[in-house]
Write a structure and sequence with these properties.
There is one protein chain. The protein is elongated. The protein has one domain (about 5-125). It has about 130 residues and is an all-alpha fold. The chain contains five helices and no strands. Helix 1 runs antiparallel to helix 3 (about 45-70), helix 1 (about 5-25) runs antiparallel to helix 5 (about 100-125) and helix 3 packs antiparallel against helix 4 (about 75-95). About 30% of the residues are buried.
């Protein structure tokens, strides 16, 4: 598999996965929130905050696909480090609120690394022409 193909697959999988996560927060917020890694999460009226997270995640995935499908691979390469701020922030939030370190590092940390690796692969590509 070429590096370009690997970068494309990683970007597409990342985009699809975060859209799936966002939809999960919109369709089943209480169950999905339990997997975020925090010891408590909003209930009843507070579930609107989970919907905000769902919309944010879906928008992030749509940005990935918009740049990927329009052929703006270099722009996607620069957008990915900005996008990696989201899982890094989630990791810090989980750890600073007595959440699960395993989830913080195993989910949010691994996600941040995967996004950063994808960014590196995209930025290493040589421009056409």
């Amino acid at each position: 598999m070429t590096m370009k193909r690997l970068a494309t697959v990683l970007a597409a999988l990342g985009g699809a996965f975060i859209i799936y996560v966002g939809l999960s927060y919109l369709l089943n917020p209480q169950t999905t929130a339990a997997d975020f890694g925090l010891p408590t999460w909003p209930r009843h009226d507070g579930t609107a905050f989970l919907a905000v997270k769902g919309v944010r995640d879906i928008a992030t995935g749509l940005v990935v696909f918009a740049l990927l499908l329009s052929g703006h691979r270099r722009a996607l390469g620069w957008a990915m480090p900005a996008i990696s701020f989201v899982p890094v922030g989630d990791l810090v939030i989980v750890l600073s609120n007595d959440g699960s370190p395993g989830t913080a590092y195993g989910v949010h940390g691994v996600t941040a690394v995967a996004v950063a690796v994808t960014a590196g692969l995209l930025l290493r590509e040589r421009p056409l022409g």
